[in-house]
Amino acid sequence: MKLSLSNKYIVIVLSFFLLLFLVIFFTTIGSVSLTLEEVIQAFFSDEETVARTIVYRMRLPRNILATLVGANLAISGILLQSVMKNPLADPGITGVSTGASVVAIFIILVAPHWIHALPLFAFIGGALACGLVFLLAWKNGIQPIRIVLAGVAVNSILGGFISLLSILYSDRIQSALFWLNGSLASKTWDDIYLLLPYSIIGLIASLFLIRSANVLQLGDESAKNLGFNVSRTRLLISAVAVFLAGVTTAIVGVIGFIGLIVPHVSRMLMGSDHKYTIPFSMVLGGIILLVADTLARTVGGAIEIPVGVITSIVGGPFFLYLLRKKGA
Amino acid sequence: MLSARRLKVGYEERVIIEDLSLSIKQGGITAIIGPNGCGKSTLLKTLSRMIPAMEGEVILEGTNLQQMKSKKVSQKICLLSQHNNAPGDLTVEQLVYYGRLPHKKWYESKTGDDQTLVDWAIEETGLTKYKQTPIAALSGGERQRAYIAQALCQKTDILLLDEPTTYLDVSYQLDLMELICEINQKFKITVVMVLHELNQASRYSDRLVIMKNGEIISDGIPNKIINQKIIQDVYQIECEIDQDPISNKPRIHPIQTIKGA
Is residue A256 part of a domain? Predict the structure, then answer.
């Protein structure tokens, strides 16, 4: 299934255009169906029609946010997989999403008057948890296996706190569940303006990490032999990955599987070179989360399903299918 | 040009090398031999700054290795480790190009000069027809040659090899040793290698360093230092030694292990 060099470029460019098309096209789908014509009209007229409100105030910002979130999580995943040298690494392993969750759930359940500052506090929570994981994993440098072990331990402790909070405040758990399963419902342009600068910083930084991520794949001794400080490189790449996952989770909650699956599909098509997998993961992450979010807001009819539920239910079996296929 | 002064090296609480000094002169091929666990690979890794010394220092051209920038060292010393696990879909050309990275800043990309060097290294190691082949499709011997090409591309004065022939068929082993000698003579690259195979070490080295329990037991030209007694002492085996008619170096024939030694 691997592509030749020129085909790789073509696929990346085509998927980028597919993504642009889907961002527009999916604004036609929803509880009120619109035609593509109506959507285009809505863009170019200043009249406050119903179509314009639906497209411009509701569906378009949501689609754009889904694209950003998908790209961020996918890049976070591929960067962490290169650091951990483990194809099963996922941004969650660093504790960033559980850390953010504990704080977010606390605010939602116990201190709802702080809700406006939730993204900031969730990010701080994620950063602290992740810092703790790396601190515990540090011993004469960073070894991937220790990050995984420390991550499992910290995640389990923080998971306990989440359960505790959910039991103590079970009467208000409804709103918290949406956050824990990640949702783009009722997101607006403000959320995009909040996430966009950080996404741009993180995504551009990831492009500068292509060479380092490739060198880490050669193995520790090879990387050291080529003059790379392996621990420092790992920390740097992890920092960008965690930053991307952290800001994203802080705004939309915990969305699983994107950071795991997208890098996989990306590698299957593009090979191991991050020169191709990083740009392609960005685009593919955007496409997949956009599709998932469109499903999330449409399949349940009037009931909005958290997008994290869709990515897990559809993503899990799809992931298994990929693994089987690869083995065959 | 590369010397170790009073090295103490180990992992955590386990000290492997207690107090060792060694000086490598420019030009020759030095082979380090000794039984498993004697510290020969540890020594090689310390010489290449992969493992920091607990005490003592490694001096490269008058400077302490630990005080040099990692990049600077990688322009002078290349270590080819025993285990390499680069992604299988890398082509030979891509793998060899990595050898240029020590000479590039992080924002610099591949230049025409780099390509010339990559082509040259691939040519010298006889891999021209495999240039675009993914390394997973190469045989073990060819892959090892590709890593040697990467090392050539790195343009270092010193090449350290950690058991380069382990896992290879005998024909590839010979092939590789010949290539190493050629590189040593043609490009004046100083070679220090850890070897398992005693006869290979004897035949292809100008200087032999024999280690046991983290210490250097004997050090000199193979013809002077190889004798039954030292082999028995280091490996606990009885052997016969004669002279190889081609290289005029000593040839060791193991007979049996000495039980209870």
Answer: yes
Which of A16, A165, A29 is closest to A104 using CA atoms? A165
Candidates B51, B90, B91, B108, partner chain A, best to mutate (most A CBs within 10 A): B90
Whole-complex ipTM? 0.90
Residue ranges of chain B whose CB lies within 8 Å of a chain A CB:
48-50, 69-75, 78-81, 83-90, 94, 98-99, 101-102, 106, 154
The CA distance from A23 to A60, in Å, is 7
A276 — contact with chain B (CB < 8 Å)?
no
pTM: 0.91
Reduced to 3 states, what is the DSSP secondary structure of residue B106? coil
Q: What residues of A are in contact with residue B85 (Cβ under 8 Å)?
A: 218-219
The CATH number of residue A74's host domain is: 1.10.3470.10
In chain A, the residue whose alpha carbon lies closest to the alpha carbon of B95 is: A218
Answer yes or no: is A32 within a domain: no
Q: Is B73–A227 a contact, with Cβ atoms under 8 angstroms apart?
A: yes
pLDDT of A328: 39
> Which DSSP string do the residues of B192-253 spell out, in sequence order?
EEE-S-HHHHHHH-SEEEEEETTEEEEEE-HHHH--HHHHHHHH-EEEEEEE-TTT--EEEE
Query: What is the tally of structural domains in chain A?
Result: 1
Q: What is the mean pLDDT of residues A23-34?
A: 88
pLDDT tens per residue across span A214-272:
999 999 899 999 999 998 999 999 999 999 999 999 899 999 889 999 999 999 899 99
CATH 3.40.50.300 domain span(s) along chain B: 1-76+158-261
**Which residue out of A6, A225, A275 would a mutagenesis test of the B interface target, given it has the greatest number of B Cβ atoms within 10 Å?**
A225
Give domain B1-76+158-261's CATH architecture. 3-Layer(aba) Sandwich (3.40)
Please say whether the beta carbons of B83 and B167 come within 8 A.
no
Classify residue A48: in a domain, yes or no. Answer: no
Summarised one tens digit per residue, pLDDT across range B166-180 is 888 999 999 999 999
